Amino acid sequence: MKVLIISQNFDVTTDLVIKWLIRFNIKFLRLNLGDVVTVKRMEIRNEGFDFVIDKNGVEINSNEILSVWYRKGNIFFENVFESVLQTTSWNKEDESYIIQIKKFLKGEMSTLTEFFYDLVENRYRSIGKRSNSRNNKLIHLMHANNCGFFIPDTFIETSKKRVTKYLNSNHVTKAIRDGIFLQNDGGYVRYVMYTQLLENISSLTLSEDFFPSLIQPKINKKYELRVFYLKGKIFSMAIFSQDSTKTKVDFRRYDHQNPNRCVPYKLKHDDEIKIRNFMTLSNLNTGSLDFIVSSCGKLYFLEVNPVGQFGMVSYPCNYFIEREIAKELSLIY
Question: Mind telling me which SUPFAM superfamilies this protein's record contains (predicted)?
Answer without folding.
Answer: Glutathione synthetase ATP-binding domain-like
